[in-house]
């Protein structure tokens, strides 16, 4: 017998419809940029990615998994959501860049920094790694402030934040694991930093760039140097 799952509450069902509308709007916007061969600025790209990445779905499904309802607490969770979702998006755009580069995708933060900010590929990766670090720390700080505050003893709040922790970590693990980003037949060896080829049929992290024929098409991915700016300051 399947385990019992509670039904979504009416407010969550309404939010599901809103999340679907936001997701479809984000996907259509991404397609529009690709069809017109335009690369957006950073703030526009991030705003669209918040929808096309399915952030509203992610939050809602995390609630459902934790068997809680955060509908009335959206304002309380603003900083947690802002930094947690941005961390997930930037990690995704970094680890999916090989695929997006091959497909000429326009709605990716790596391409934005290259084509709109004039950075080189490695510079873009370094900046985004720094932003991942920034948002991770800001997410943890916002989460801890909430847990240490007057609402921190509530079981629903604590359960939801615990679910977000798992969601963020699980999303990143999936992106390391999936052959969709690294080529059919790829198997993750547990590496989380190193050099990636943009042209090899199957690529994986390696400890140095090498001097092969695709050396100029490689990039280093990992913790990176701290960025000199925050993404809120990019214009």
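-> sequence recovered:
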């Amino acid at each position: 017998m399947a385990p019992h799952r509670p039904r979504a509450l009416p407010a969550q069902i309404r939010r599901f419809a809103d999340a679907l509308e936001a997701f479809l709007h984000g996907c259509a916007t991404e397609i529009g940029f690709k069809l017109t061969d335009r690369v957006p600025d950073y703030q526009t790209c991030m705003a669209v990615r918040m929808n096309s990445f399915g952030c509203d779905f992610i939050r809602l499904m995390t609630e459902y998994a934790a068997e809680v309802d955060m509908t009335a607490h959206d304002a309380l969770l603003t900083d947690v959501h802002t930094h947690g979702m941005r961390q997930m998006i930037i990690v995704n755009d970094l680890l999916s860049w090989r695929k997006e580069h091959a497909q000429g995708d326009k709605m990716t933060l790596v391409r934005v920094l290259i084509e709109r900010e004039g950075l080189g590929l490695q510079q873009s990766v370094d900046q985004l790694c720094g932003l991942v670090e920034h948002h991770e720390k800001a997410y943890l700080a916002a989460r801890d402030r909430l847990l240490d505050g007057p609402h921190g003893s509530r079981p629903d709040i604590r359960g939801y934040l615990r679910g977000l922790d798992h969601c963020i970590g699980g999303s990143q693990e999936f992106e390391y694991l999936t052959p969709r980003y690294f080529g059919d037949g790829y198997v993750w060896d547990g590496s989380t930093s190193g050099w990636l080829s943009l042209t090899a049929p199957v690529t994986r992290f390696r400890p140095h760039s090498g001097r092969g024929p695709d050396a100029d098409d490689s990039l280093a991915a990992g913790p990176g140097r701290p960025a000199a700016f925050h993404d809120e300051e990019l214009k």
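Confidence is low (pLDDT under 50) at residues 211-216, 222-235.
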